[in-house]
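Narrative summary of target 7.
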Amino acid sequence: MFKKCILILAASCMMYSCATQTESNPFLTEFQTPNGVPPFDKIKLEHYEPAFQKGIEEQNANIQAIIDNTEAPTFENVIVALDNSSPILSRVSSVFFNMTEAETSDGLADLEMKMGPLLSEHSDNISLNQELFKKVNTVYQQKDGLALTTEQKRLLDKTYKSFIRSGANLPDDKQARLREINKQLSTLGIAFGNHVLNENNAFKLYIDKEEDLAGLPESVRLAAASEAKADGQEGKWLFTLQNSSRLPFLQYADNRPMREKIYKAYINRGNNNDGNDNKKVITDIVALRLEKAKLLGYDCYSNFVLDECMAKDSQTVMDFLNNLWNYALPKAKAEAAELQQLMDKEGKGEKLEAWDWWYYTEKLRKEKYNLEETEIKPYFKLENVRQGAFDVANKLYGITLTPMKDVPTYHPDVEVFEVKDADGSQLGIFYVDYFPRAGKRGGAWMSNYREQKADVRPLVCNVASFTKPVGDTPSLLSLDEVETLFHEFGHGLHGLLTKCQYLGTSGTNVARDFVELPSQINEHWATEPEVLKMYAKHYKTGEVIPDSLIEKILNQKTFNQGFMTTELLAAAILDMNLHNLTDTEGLDVVAYEKEAMDQLGLIPEIAPRYRTTYFNHIIGGYAAGYYSYLWANVLDNDAFEAFKEHGIFDKQTADLFRQNVLEKGDSEDPMTLYKNFRGTEPQLDPMLKNRGMK
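Modeled conformation, tokenized:
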């Protein structure tokens, strides 16, 4: 997942009175560190709020300077000046919002709730500033006669449209209402995410009888014992809702009632009628988004969002998703029938339920392919997998990643690498933070501590919640975790290799349904035989993964794809349905979700990958955008065909991809960039074939 610490530029001019804190605040100047990395060893909770205030003051002054400039408005003195107007706010925002995701605390959570409305107000003060908009509009109206580069035209167009989409042309009363909506949305979004985090942390499945561990591999038992010990319950076994704990339990635990318990706890997060309930929160968010869209001249929120994406409108997305649904659901039903047959052989008279799917899928995998995940995990030591991803990037693009010592970090788990190009020039600094903990939100993502522009190189991070080391056993990844590591590193490459002149066009600042192309294409290398032999080495013996196991991995590549595609599609369609609404009066999100899934014919053995009350993606930037994983899946499968045609490490193909996608950011239209690489628009067939649907 790509997660951008979006700089919500916002609003208040309160002075911070403590001179001592202000003078020693590391955010108020360029970081006084090698490579300008954040000085995490010096950053304290009390530094954030005054830095936000100073950043707001600085940007307000810079905006006023643009307005007061008596020279004729130009691209440089308006558009570029605006792009560069928030140095302090950029520094503090990038660190703060990364911390609230990866290492939050009560203090950070309280400050996030306090700053959200202020930053929303500041953002509106800029985008609704009529004097500033007049300057932007003047430059925009002259664009055809300005001899701008393609990237400059793109930045000008984005800047102008951002003002229009933020309400610059609305009358005063509607602008006032829009401000209020934006404030409420910022607060509600923070609350939603905190509720999900609290629910994740609250659930603890303790097991104190060894017989209840039947079926679980020794590595899973050891990890659960370690979790229990860390929680002050030595001698027991603890399972949580973290993927690295929950999924192995669902895969292997013979105890069916306990599988049901952990499954239901996961799918009912935010829906328990307690202090972390999200039903009203998401209802209010959907209603406010619809009101905002209508204020801005759209019939629904999805069309407002999609106007800036490759898909352009809701109908295009729904046609795309419904077409895929017709391929995916029959395959999922066939898989369900096969699992039921396996259950019937056991003679227990049990009917397949949602909490049985992973368990019997694992049994079926062994029966059909003679493969168990426990066979391959010893070859997927995290450090080796990561080096494999680095080596692939080296073979494709000539880059190197070298560990850096003595770089300040916010947690001992974080590691740092210097990234250099083939000619030895520095491309950026790369942080990785791979293990779950209470202060970290679930999932995996890429973000920035500093974005690239001109000669300024980026500081990029990958964050995940992979299987933790236990005792003498290192972190051994599942195949899904291996692909996730390659996926997030693909986002990282997009952020590290970018070569743009402006913040607004660089790196991952691209259309939401294009941003997943670099990440998803990078997953393809993870299981290529040539690549597996580079990094998949037994953690005890160093033995390279044998051909027999590679063959099994490849043979089962389309196994369970009906389930995986259907649950993903169900979530994408749920997201679109919520944001296609033109009336939210009396909306009951849980009932609406059930009705929507029933209309699709979703079988009860499968739930949407994310249900409404814990669908963090649609809070964190993927509203009316979750479809983009599948949209980009068409692109990445088609794009990888180019590598398969010429060789997976073909230099010319890699150069084309780097120069036309990874380096270009949003400096040109995404379909233009894609066609510059591939020579034609993407085809659907490779994606269907790779998901076993054709």
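The longest helix spans residues 314-346.
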